[in-house]
Amino acid sequence: MYPVIVIRVRLALSRYKCVVQEFERAVIFRLGRVRKGGARGPGLFFVLPCVDTYRKVDLRTVSFDVPPQEVLTRDSVTVAVDAVVYYRIKEPLNAVVRVADYSASTRLLAATTLRNVLGMRDLAQLLSDREAISHMMQANLDEATDPWGVEVERVEIKDVRLPVQLQRAMAAEAEADREARAKIIAAEGEIKASKALKEASLVMIDNPMALQLRYLQSLNTISAEKNSTIIFPFPMDFLRTFLGGAGPSMSPSLPI
């Protein structure tokens, strides 16, 4: 008799008990009203049959991907942007009582907030200030979901996809910019080289032997490259002695 009663009591208790994990909380309703004391857990508690109902809420951080959103920036450029959001439940009672589905509501609000925040930015700001945009989006989401008991911990923009024509235009612009900088650097190099040649010519004028040494150095450079042809400069002053006595028909000034 007694063992049967004990077994029936155990079965009844096991049927109407609830175990809440360390990372969970349970909100209990008695006849449709929230029981005093707020969310319960972690641990073991019992509910009355046909009187009490409960709902468990997970307190761990949850992440989800925001689907790619077609966004028109402030400078009228259409881009596709997707992001990832991390949130957790900080008030289990509000998450159950004040919103029907906090997960779906947070996902829809994240997609809307992403479009609104990016619509106030230019394309250049969107590509360079991702961290600032992420912080702004996190602040807006956290403020909107606070009455639901949801805390948005982090928002990250994953990818920004540009139209193919815009990518080609930006690549052409970057290439033209690089070519312009290369020409400026080359022109500055020519200016410095001309100044150095001017100083070298002044030194050679003061010391004629410097020109001969420079000539020998040029021959050494040419011979090191294994060339079969050597250009040997012949001084024009040496020829003027012979050309001067040939007659008045010869031009007295010859190019040096």
Molecular structure report:
By secondary structure, this protein is of the alpha+beta class. It contains 8 helices and 8 strands. It has helices at residues 2-15, 92-97, 102-119, 123-128, 130-145, 164-206, 208-224, 236-244, and strands spanning 17-20, 24-30, 33-34, 43-46, 52-58, 62-72, 78-89, 150-161. Strands 3-2-5 form a 3-stranded antiparallel beta sheet. Strands 6-7-8 form a 3-stranded antiparallel beta sheet, covered by helices on one side. It has a two-stranded antiparallel ribbon with strand order 1-4. Strand 6 and strand 7 (78-89) form a beta hairpin. Mean pLDDT is 80; it is low at 1-7, 9-13 and 246-256.
State the main characteristics.
256 residues, three-stranded antiparallel beta sheet, disordered C terminus, membrane
**Head-to-tail CA distance between termini:** 134 Å
Within the largest sheet, what's the order of strands? 3-2-5
Number of helices: 8
Radius of gyration: 43 Å
How much is the average pLDDT? 80
Low-confidence stretches: 1-7, 9-13, 246-256
Question: How many beta-strand runs?
Answer: 8
Report the major sheet. 3 strands, antiparallel
Determine the structural class based on helices, strands and strand pairing.
alpha+beta
Proportion of residues in extended strands:
15-25%
Estimate the helix proportion, in percent.
Answer: 40-55%
Q: Spell out the helices and strands N to C.
A: HEEEEEEEHHHHEHHH
The geometry reads as rod-shaped
